[in-house]
Design goal:
The chain is of the alpha/beta class. It contains 13 helices and 21 strands. Bound molecules: S-adenosyl-L-homocysteine, iron/sulfur cluster and FE3-S4 cluster (F3S).
Length: 440
């Protein structure tokens, strides 16, 4: 058996792609290793959402390129979102790379690897999706299985590279998704997270050619009672795509969790317009209010960018105010990073200086921390259902940890490994990023 090592940078979509690559490579007699030095095939699965993630990818292949001087037989692959952008140009910069494979060509991997093994240098980055094949998925051992349902994006937010790296929106076949979900459940996974850049845009076709949207898909998965108890989640939602039908589905389906990730990006109307987001602050607020009035205990998390080109101090403060006023439960934050090809990257004369961006990011993070503290305090004294994900020893004490239906992390002292079980927990305390509880 040959050995393959894959280093994954970036989002869950990339991690899911890596699980698929491992699965395909198994058919080609590769076994997975966690030790890059022992691998015959090394793949860096890249992310280009920010400059920093792109830089990481290049520095990693630089290291592997040096290994090739003493071990000329190792093969190096470059996949993911940076690969989709650089295409064969990578060979000029890094001539030791053997394979460049774009995001839409994932399922071509076995054929490309064959050519690489024959000594060819190969690049496949065409912007035409290579048909999905029924390979095994070599999943990371966990409680939660990530299942992509759609890929790509048509929104073209002015700062974002994703539409250029993942291409136009396309939904996976309904039958294939259901098959994959059933397989994961039969393997013992207890949580299914449906994945997509904009999950609400899912458009599939049922047995009789009928249209199936995200709600239809969630209802179909929810009815899989023969697999025992499990949970279903979905990320990411574009704010204005959340429909009443989806809200009703979350309420009607016992397995679908009360959790929405709806990136807001900025709390200022002018900046939102410049970002090419299709809502203003009042609309976003209405969506949050509506969700909270309809779904008990719903958690709403978000993403924000600090220091978007031309963002004034006042506009930035509007973001801090919005975060607090909306009582967001948690937010991912980042400093704006100009990305090639995107509209905002051309506004060079309006860029915010690096130190100013860093300072704004620190304030954004502080407000996020305050929001999390307030959000967590609400649960003290309540009894919540937790799906246990881990059993660990923290400073000499045995602790289980897992998440509530609405995605709050809870730590519970416990002498037994209850990983994979649903337990009722009384919340006794709240920390910044997690809750503390006791088994009831
Ligand atoms: N499809 C999702 C998000 C995908 S990208 C959505 O529309 O919400 C994940 C997050 O990365 C974005 O929500 C955004 O906050 C951040 N991001 C994207 N491009 C960025 C850039 N150029 N600089 C900084 N952060 C960025
Ligand atoms: Fe990027 Fe906007 Fe598409 Fe999200 S919706 S992936 S932020 S372009
Ligand atoms: Fe990164 Fe591509 Fe995901 S740019 S965040 S790996 S879609």
């Amino acid at each position: 058996m040959k050995k393959v090592y894959i280093e994954t940078l970036g989002c869950q979509m990339n991690k899911s792609d890596a699980e698929r690559m491992f699965g395909m490579l198994e058919y080609m007699d590769y076994e997975r290793t966690d030790e890059p030095k022992k691998a015959d095939l090394l793949i860096i699965n890249t992310c280009s959402i920010r400059q920093l993630s792109e830089d990481k990818a290049y520095s990693q292949i630089g290291v592997w390129g040096k290994w090739k001087k003493t071990r000329p037989n190792i093969k190096i692959g470059f996949s993911g979102c940076v690969a989709q952008q650089v295409k064969e140009n990578l060979f000029k910069r890094a001539p030791y790379v053997d394979l460049v494979i774009g995001t839409q060509r994932l399922y071509e991997l076995p054929e490309l690897i064959k050519r690489v093994e024959n000594g060819e240098r190969v690049c496949s980055c065409e912007e035409s999706p290579y048909a999905e094949k029924d390979y095994k998925i070599n999943r990371v051992k966990s409680i939660n299985a990530w299942v992509p349902i759609m890929e790509g994006c048509n929104n073209f937010c002015s700062y974002c590279i994703v539409p250029y790296t993942r291409g136009r929106e396309r939904s996976r076949d309904f039958k294939n998704i259901m098959k994959e979900v059933k397989k994961a459940l039969s393997e013992g996974f207890k949580e299914i997270t449906l994945l997509g850049q904009n999950v609400d845009s899912y458009k599939g076709k049922g047995e009789n050619g009928e249209e199936i949207n995200l709600s239809g898909l969630l209802r179909a998965i929810n009815s899989l009672d023969e697999y025992g108890k499990f949970r279903v989640r979905f990320v990411t939602s574009y704010p204005t795509d959340i429909t009443d039908e989806l809200i009703d589905t979350v309420n009607d389906c016992d397995k679908v969790c009360e959790y929405f990730h709806i990136p807001m990006q900025s709390g200022d109307d002018y900046v939102l317009k410049k970002m090419n987001r299709r809502y203003d602050v009042a609309t976003y607020k209405k969506i949050c209010d509506h969700l909270r009035s309809k779904i008990k205990d719903v958690t709403i998390t978000s993403d924000f960018i600090a220091g978007f080109p031309a963002e004034t101090e006042e506009q930035f403060e509007n973001t801090l105010k919005a975060m607090k006023a909306l009582e967001l439960d948690y937010s991912n934050t980042a400093a704006y990073s100009p990305r090639e090809k995107t509209v905002a990257a051309k506004w060079v004369d309006k860029f915010i200086p690096e130190d100013e961006k860093i300072e704004r990011l620190a304030r954004l993070n502080e407000t996020n921390r305050e929001c999390c503290v307030l959000s967590n305090k609400k649960y003290i004294g309540r009894t919540l259902e937790v799906l246990v994900e881990k059993f660990e020893n923290h400073n000499g004490k045995n602790v289980i940890s897992g998440r509530t239906r609405n995605n709050k992390m809870v730590h519970i002292p416990c002498e037994r490994d209850l990983t994979g079980e649903f337990v009722d927990v009384k919340i006794t305390g709240s920390m910044t990023w997690y809750l503390k509880g006791e088994l009831v």
